[in-house]
Amino acid sequence: MKKILSLLLAALMIFVFFAGCGEKETVNTDPTSTQAATEKPDPTAGELTPDPDDDSPYNFAIGKYEVNEKGFPVAPYEYELPISTTDESLSYWTSTYTPQYIPEEGYETLPLFVDLQNMTGVNIEYVLVPVATMREQYTTLLAADDLCDMTCNAVSYQSGTFEEAIEDGFWANIYDYMEYAPNYIYQSTFDPADDQTYAKVFYQDDMIVAFYTIYTESFINGNLMVRGDWLDDVGLNADDVVTFDDMHNMLTLFKTNIETVTFPWFLNATIDVPGAYYLTASDTIPVVNPTTLPPAYVIDGEVKFPNMNETDREFVTMISQWFSEGLIDPEWNGNLEQINAKIYSGATGARFMAPGDVLGNELNTTNDPDVEWRPVHKPLKNTDQTIHLGGRPSRLVYGSATISQKCENIPLAMTWLDFRYSATGSVLLSYGSEGQLFTRDENGKFTATEFALNHEAGYSWALTLFALNGLIDCGMQDNNRKYAYEGGERLQVMHEYWADFKYDGIYDMPARVKLTTDQSDEVGIYRPDIVTYLNENYFSFIDGSKPLSEWDSYVQGLKDIGMTRIIEIYQDAYDTYIESLG
Fold this sequence. Notes:
Elements: H1 2-18, E1 89-94, H2 111-120, E2 123-128, H3 134-143, E3 150-152, H4 154-157, H5 162-167, H6 182-189, H7 195-201, E4 211-219, E5 223-227, H8 228-233, H9 244-257, E6 297-299, E7 302-304, H10 310-324, H11 336-345, E8 350-353, H12 355-363, E9 373-375, E10 394-403, H13 410-419, H14 423-431, E11 438-440, E12 446-448, H15 450-453, H16 459-466, E13 476-477, H17 488-498, H18 517-543, H19 551-580
Parallel strand pairs: 1-2, 1-3, 4-13
Antiparallel strand pairs: 3-10, 4-10, 5-8, 5-9, 6-7, 11-12
Helix pairs in contact: 1-12, 6-7, 18-19
């Protein structure tokens, strides 16, 4: 059982950090502008939304809440239930990672969905497809113009631009109906400092393409973890590991003093982790993704891409040296089974993890009763360094839902989805049907049930089936549910520990910089060759199979196959955005 739990937990976290890698370049995957939140559109400025229809069989929110001068809700909205008394149905295209645990009676008979139907009065036809074929099936449905009323993760599978999906009559522009979604719009706009969420939701000032999953609060999902019991053995503590030099010292001590260690650091297959970006202290984002380009950034108004600059040469030189010293596992681009084997056997003692990985990794390490994984801070170049890009706390998750323009009742679909972002809906979606995954005491505290903790699929997987699956479906998810059990507080505070560093984000690409359709199409021409080139060459500098003396030649080759043009395109998009600020 312990082995199953850990394998599934680790598999989940690998998916979390790579699921969004295929998104199009028209969507900024690392939105960190500090300006966008002040540039809100002004759709229908006024004190109240339009008057509701008192005779309607629907309890829509429109006309029942106050808005600010921008036309955005000033507070969360609680729905009068049921939402509908018409007994009509909507179709909802989704998936699950654990289909083997679906009741024989069907997906819709899961207690969560029964409660959701009873609360809202909206009948949902769940169209469940295998995760592995979601992209293929979405493409087929799109070609046949036969999308469901609501489609999960379409933003990840859309081959054309998002504008084209709307202009060609496939997706509804949610912006045109946003008065039916006060909770989603409120969560996207209420905090001026949270420009990430705003820029993700408002794809353009007058375009919203999807309902995205949002956490109830921002946090850093994962970072570097090390064997804390080994820190004790070598006379260190987590707070001693601040700089890359400190990290090098720690890894060296692990290798020379811990008997089970072969290679102390199991580096990620992409080097840095997409979305997490914990290795950005060299003023670059050293990500080599197998499917898409790394994120662009800006220094003094000049657009740059990682893996080709002097800062990248500096980073690769350091990591290559560590590799030559035997501090990095040569199988660092291995599969999940290889990774887990190294962790469980004590062969490695440093690895990027999320707190949810820790319990399984400790339970499955049977050769050391003192095993304990602890967080360490994002490694810096010097102790007083301010990080300029990457690694900022975020509320964004990967799940999403679009609405079809052919949906016969878009206001009802909007309202049903928006309910998932209300206080009542979020609690139901986050914790599931009362008594199944969690119990709730008189003070409102949730505690995981034995059913959840001991489920055959593992705790984390049980949450994604019997409650909101934030990796596929949409809604507002309470992150505290991951730690609602005895001892969970130890893991929960890891998020706060990782957030303790100086950050100003001055090199991050502004979140509101977007490519036009033509620009995105042109980038798409060069993208495949560049992705292949990076994957075939960059790693060779780390393991020494390609000498660093060939770095300049490698960079020139990257420019020659289209990177120069891609930088020009992004520079044009950035300059256009700056000019729009006036």
